[in-house]
Design goal:
Elements: H1 5-25, E1 32-38, H2 42-58, E2 61-67, H3 73-85, E3 91-94, H4 104-110, H5 122-129, H6 138-149, E4 158-162, H7 169-177, E5 186-190, H8 197-201, E6 206-209, E7 227-230, E8 234-237, E9 245-248, H9 253-256, E10 262-263, H10 270-289
Helix pairs in contact: 1-10, 2-10, 6-7, 6-10
The protein binds nicotinamide-adenine-dinucleotide.
Length: 299
């Protein structure tokens, strides 16, 4: 069975649009997400355009700030500072990757933790690690929302995560192993230096692939009945596609899906959930910054 990020993200977006309408009816301003895009990386352009389009669809205000590749680190940091101080901005995201002359760490740390809707700030990562409420990075949060929607049992299961990046592999491994409603799994975190990867994968009840190598996971690496979460998105050249490329996941879908109990497709799986999670975080930032709670929607 496929875990349809498209359907679940549409449901979450609908719920958010109802909330935005309630705010408007009560004469509050709409939540506001500010996105910064540097250069003209095709994939980044697509991601940011999609985030903006989704904001518009549900009534969240968005603004896009664009810079050339040669923008200085100082100019970027000053803009972030300006957005931090802007009372009408609730969430700030800087689309990664950045040009080499700009420190990703400095940029991440410059964003105010309460506006850090991507959940990359060390303060928010620290809270996540300690199991405290925070902005959970959008992709891991999207995966949790998807598993939750399909009522996939996590407790006590063996989860194997492949990939240890700060934006996907590491936070999802922390979340799924934490003592929380949606955690309590036994998690093995694998990476490029892991030995016997195939043998470890074969022990997984739930396999999360966040590697960036298309078709890396084959059926002979997967246990019968495993749940497969494919985070990978790689553009692979394809002359027959209108755009000249197709999006491929880290999992060889046709090979693996007959063995899997549940599997996410690419596209149409985790990617769309990431956007739904980002929008959810933006609403959360809005409520926190305005001293409001979810009760506002119940009244
Ligand atoms: P990254 O390059 O930062 O990390 C890749 C990880 O894979 C590393 O930790 C590395 O150790 C591991 N790895 C590489 N080769 C390996 C091998 N042979 N065996 C085992 N492990 C290996 O990548 P990332 O930012 O975490 O992204 C991973 C993939 O997920 C990419 O395709 C990216 O485009 C995609 N992604 C998708 C979403 C989404 O919304 N679906 C969000 C973020 C990233």
């Amino acid at each position: 069975m496929q875990l349809l990020g498209k359907e679940v993200s549409e449901k979450i977006k609908h719920q958010l649009s109802v909330k935005v309408q309630t705010l408007k009816n009560k004469k509050y301003r709409s939540p506001h997400l500010s996105a910064i895009l540097i250069g003209n990386n095709g994939a980044s352009e697509t991601y940011v355009a999609s985030k903006i389009k989704n904001c518009e669809e549900i009534g969240i205000k968005s603004s896009l700030i664009r810079y050339d590749n040669n923008v200085s680190e100082n100019e970027l940091l000053s803009k972030i500072e300006e957005l931090n101080k802007d009372e009408t901005v609730d969430g700030i995201l800087v689309q990664l990757p950045l040009p080499k002359h700009i420190s990703e760490q400095k940029v991440i740390e410059a964003i105010h933790p309460l506006k850090d809707v991507d959940g990359f700030h060390p303060e928010n990562i620290g809270k996540l690690t300690q199991g405290n409420p925070t902005f959970i990075s959008a992709t891991p949060y999207g995966i949790i929302l998807l598993l939750e929607h399909y009522k996939i049992d996590i407790k006590g299961k063996h989860v194997v995560v492949i990939g240890r990046s700060n934006i996907v592999g590491r936070p999802i491994s922390i979340l799924l192993s934490s003592n929380a409603t949606y955690g309590n799994a036994t998690v093995t975190l694998c990476h490029s230096q892991t030995k016997n990867l195939k043998e470890i994968c074969l022990q997984a009840d739930i396999l999360v692939a966040a590697i960036g190598i298309p078709g890396f996971i084959k059926a002979n690496m997967v246990k019968d009945g495993a749940v497969i979460i494919d985070v990978g998105i790689t553009r692979v050249e394809d002359a027959s596609a209108k755009s000249g490329f197709r999006l491929k996941g880290d999992v060889d879908f046709d090979d693996v899906s007959p063995k899997a109990s549940y599997i996410t497709p690419v596209p149409g799986g985790v990617g769309l959930m990431t956007i739904a999670a980002l929008l959810t975080n933006t609403m959360k930032a809005y409520l926190l910054r305005n001293n409001l709670t979810e009760d506002i929607f119940a009244e």
